[in-house]
Amino acid sequence: MKLLLTLTNMKSPIFNEQKVHTVLATPGQSEKAQEISFTDMKSIGNGSFGVVYQATMVANKEVVAIKKVLQDKRFKNRELQIMRSIEHQNIVSLKYFFYSSGEKKDEVYLNLVLEFMPDTVYRVCRHYSRHSQTIPLLHSKLYAYQMFRSLAFLHSRGICHRDIKPQNLLLNPETGVLKLCDFGSAKHLQRGEPNVSYICSRYYRAPELIFGATHYTCQIDIWSAGCVVAELLLGKPLFPGDTGVDQLVEIIKVLGTPTREQISEMNPDYTEFKFPQIPGVPWQKVFRPRTPSEAINLITRLLIYRPQQRVSPLEACSHQFFDELRAESTRLSSGQPLPLLFNFSQAGMA
Q1: Do 77 and 217 belong to one domain?
Q2: Residue 163 catalytic?
Q3: Which of 1, 232, 307, 314 could form a disulfide with 140 if both were Cys (CB 3.0 to 4.6 A apart)?
Q4: Which helix (H) or strand (E) segment is 317 a member of?
Q5: Which of 116, 110, 10 has its CA nearest to residue 57?
Q6: In degrees rounded to 5, what are phi and psi of residue 306?
Q7: pTM
Q8: Residue 68, annotated ligand binder?
Q9: What angle, rounded to 10 degrees, do the helices at 137-156 and 219-234 form?
Q10: Catalytically annotated residue among 40, 72, 163, 221
Q11: CB 63 within 8 A of CB 55
Q12: Same domain, residue pair 283 and 201
């Protein structure tokens, strides 16, 4: 992919908060580059991937997020390729992308101009937790349902997100809309092609990954999604392991020790079977006393050792736990109607 030249000096750090920055950028769903201008820059997040800024587009005053990542010129950026190929109401949209130079010679950064969302499921969970409360059940249903819709869309295209967690579920609390973000770990999974097992944030890592599986499926996302649903209900992570090994211990304390058959299905190449025999805990004892039975039933269909026994995202969407969302009388706590939830397309039914 050719390097697009910027129209201003975009050396790192590229952004001055008050300055108007004009660059030559390519729209997410097009090939024709165009000038865009933005201002009011401020850093809103950073990590091993790079930095995320909030900015305002000069043309229409739209607030956007700009994710800046160091680009290895030897490879095409998988995140960019995937984001350009997808468009869904529950996935954050790629508006533009452009390249900028860094301080070092030949250092190139990819900048993704993304739809901005003001909050995350993670921050909302922490807010309620600090007040010794859990997210209202209707909100938990609303957020979980939209998460599964985004996964139904991705999985129908063979794309595995590989990092489902509350931090990557963006929210607009006023409208109730949720959008999945951060496709830095996402990949088109090909049958028979190995993949790295050290993927996904620890608390949400599927057991087959902990067992070192390299021929896993999109079902690793379903496990992660199950952990998110459980966290919405509990107000805290279900499996808070301190290390990779401890993560497996946390899972075993709830699900019990996996059988040889279950381990074989998670990773046929795993030969170490030296685990203490620990019985599982009834799910009713894991959650609060007033947790609805249909919520627990959904969890039992998501958090299963055998990957192929986990429900699909579409099956999760049709689960009775979400029946309240299907009632015409259901409203947000503000009295506003729910966001669009059932406008499924034929392509992938997502």
Answers
A1: no
A2: yes
A3: 232
A4: helix 313-317
A5: 116
A6: -70, 115
A7: 0.91
A8: yes
A9: 170
A10: 163
A11: yes
A12: yes
